[in-house]
Design brief:
Layout lengths: L1 H26 L1 E3 L5 E3 L2 H9 L3
Antiparallel strand pairs: 1-2
Length: 53
């Protein structure tokens, strides 16, 4: 039972991180825990969108 709960928690954590990443890519910025906005540079956005080569 503990293994199942741990697996579920890991999956939820990864899902949340993926949703945050997609939001950054869509919006071009993120807000940190101090409510400060940080802009993702165009090269960073391109790296996520097209992959690193």
């Amino acid at each position: 039972m503990k293994h199942t709960m741990n697996t579920r928690s890991n999956r939820d954590t990864r899902s949340h991180m993926a949703q945050e990443t997609l939001s950054i890519l869509e919006n071009g910025y993120y807000t940190d825990t101090k409510q400060l906005d940080h802009t993702a540079g165009q090269s960073t956005l391109n790296a996520f969108k097209y992959g690193l080569s």
